[in-house]
Amino acid sequence: MQTAPQTTDELFEALRENDRRPYGRTRTVTAEELAEAAELFGEPVPLIHALLELQEAYTYGSEPRKSPVVFARLLNLFDEQPDVFDDRLRHQLFWRFKWVANALRCLPEVPLASLRQWQTEMRDRYEKAGLDLQPYYGQAYQLAAHVGEDTDLAYELWAGRTRGMLSDCEACETCERALYHLASGDDERALRAWEPVLAGEESCQEEPARSVSYALLPLLRAGRTDEARRLHLAGYRGCRRNPSMAGEVGRHLEFCALTGNEARGLELLAENRTLFDEVDSPLAQLDLLTGVEVLLARVEALGRGELPAAGLPGRSWTVASLRAEVRRRADDLAGRFDARNGTTAHTDRRAARLGRAPLLESLELTLRPRTLEDVVPATAPAAPEPAQALPEAPADLIKRARELDEQGHPDAHACWARLRALTAAPDHVHPDDPEVGPLVRLRADLLEEEARLAERKDAHTDAAALYEEAAGLYEDAGLPGHAVFARASAVLAGAQVAPSEVPEEGADPEARAAARAAVFTEAHAELVRLHEQASGIAPYLEARLLRLRVSARGLRLQASGDKEHVAPILAEAELLYDFATRHGLTGQIAAARLLRATTHAMAGDLPASLAEADGLVELLRTDGPAWHLPRALSLRGKIQLGLGDAEAAHASLGEGVRLAAEWPAEAVDAATLHGELAQACMGLGRPDEALRHLTRSAELEMRAGTRFDAFCTYSNAAQLSLDLGRIEDCIALLDSLLVEPDVVGGELDDRLVAQLRLTRARALRAGDDLKAATAEFVALAAESAGWDDDPGSHAMIAAETAVLLGEAGEFAKAREAVDQALAAHARDPRYELVSNALRELARLQAQQQGPEGLTGARVFLDDAGRVADAARAVGFEAHGRSLDSALAYEHGRINAYAGAYDEALAALEKALGLLGEPGEDADVAGEWAECVRLAGVVEGVYLERTAPALARVEAAAHRLTALGHTEEAESLTGLAERLRDEE
Hints:
Number of helices: 47
Number of strands: 2
Shape: globular
Largest sheet: 2 strands, antiparallel
Strand order of the largest sheet: 1-2
């Protein structure tokens, strides 16, 4: 709080503002400051309100020690001045007797006698006030359940009573009933009791998140795994990082541990690390710590106790060390509660949780399945697994690596990775073997391999430097042929780095394309020169030089788009094919045909490209090499997609994915295969299958170290899951991505991160979490305001933000946001998007505020009118509804909301005139029918001109029926019947 309130009005406004904040330290500290400020006014009512807010902050901020103290002050005020408590304040006061009972139960230092004494106080107060005692018996049962004695009798005394005004909400009572059955070992009855809460029919501040956390394991035991998965995703989001729901977080961690999702459990533990410090409730701590221990024990049982774990602040933890600390703390807490209660209930319950065996070996919880291998971020991609075992002796390993490298075999990468590790060891001794050659050659080989890996990540500058260094070492080793090839590779890698003479992005596209093409022309000339100067080199190296020449020509075509460059590529590819055929280089024969097929595709001749790809696939099936087949099938599938044959593409790509599984993923580009197969699935109307392949593609890209590509693919997967209505899947995926170290550390492209956050905000909105969605949109709008190079994106984000603020009734803030959208739109027009937002804001204000909101709504529509005028002037055509007809309709609707019925009817008739008569287009027919329907309601119901309204509606219904738009006609038929009844 920046400044203390100077008046009671300012105090009440500050209390309302604080009430909108999430529970936690910020809200609690502000509530403390406001309570102090309220005392200075010397008036009881403001102080009562401030104390109520403070107690709520303590209660839901998991500070049970402080809640009873605040309540004691409220009770004193009530005893001294009962008349200042109106009905609402009195209700609040008596409701919070239960909060104090709950708070005292959470504190093992409070004697059991004091707990019973408070319950007696509650009963006496309720009886004196003439209140129903059902809430008292509810608290008596909860204390019995906590202590572990006489629960059956206490349950019957409570559950058999009729609910009253001060009873806990139905959702909370449902949970207590279900927990009673669960403790009795009756999962089936517990789940039946929970049904209305789990279905979302009953809810409150804590529900259904609390019930969900308890129901997860019973659902698994009942075989309802899909439901458990869905509820875990939704329920966890409802309690994450919430100090007052630490126990619920602990049960979600336990659920992960018992379903083979230990890695996700550790991820969620890291996300909730602050709870170790923030939770001041010993009972909640015990609940949380036990769930944490179940998870850590499971990870340690899998032999991974050395993994890092997010634990108590102040030091680093491994799974094993954190488990020991958690066990010590939880055992102490359980012992303190049992000592206070005179039973062993808490120790026994803890032992039961810790003794549970996993319920499922594996259960895929999210779109991003993780293993314990993924817990530690790798500094480099993991070494590829070879298809066959590698030699152990260094000399044999070097020979094997060079043999496989000469063939282009994928296992060469695994050999080089092993050799890189061996040579990095301080005690490495190079083999004294003439066939192996000197150490300098091995160093050159490893540099060349490192350069190839850099090229895969498009790190062309690094690759060029590594190739040059390798070339120098090859010369030192007396291998001029290898040196020439390495130098040639450096030339082509360097050409892919935009030199200073190439215009920057945003410059004239033709000039930029011409400059890029010139760079590749020069590179090709240099490659030819190097090739011509080389003599006596091994055929496999000469074939690779020819292949570089084809690649340079291909890159020139890609840069320029000039089809005159196609013939030179095909000529170079023919040289490579002839050379490889003469020397029996099967890998390069396949490469030449692959390059020919690719060139035809780039030239737009897809039939020729497909014919070449078909031939290549058959060649590889008979002659090999087998590891080229997945790439060939990938190309064929891509061409088939381009030809619109999704079925054939799916078959090709599906086979490619199956064959790719036999080879290291990076060597056969399995990530691309899965991505293309996802496109084929979408073409066949199989979006769920497409989603699986998208996430698999992203996972492979992440493991290969191409993290930017992985995040892009995950972003597409998140959007698809949102489109499919899998909202919780979408949010869980994005939550997992947004806590990745390179995202948190600001290393990932900020626009890509913004896209991930934008999709998440839209998912939150789709999931009706409007408060969280609005907060994210507001933050994104503020950040995107600084995107001077992309005002259109800011216009989009600001417009969506404005609509959300309008839905929340905050029209002043909505006006500010939409003004930002309009300013950005002026620089980079987004006619349809901005017009839609303005019309929606007008509708919201008129709907929410009625006649009082008409002026503000009309201002929004005036802005929309100017946008429509500008769009019309430049010939813009909307993808959806016409901006003009939609605007006229909205004028009609807001005037109807505000009771200006004549103006509404005139606007709707204008909209109908702009739309014209309906035809075969169903969308236009639907818009036309809605205009007629609303016009009929305004004219016939509100203006009471029944006859013309009925004639209008009946004629429209007949017209639509004759055109076959029966569904659109139904709403008009129903309205006509209503109007006839009113005649």
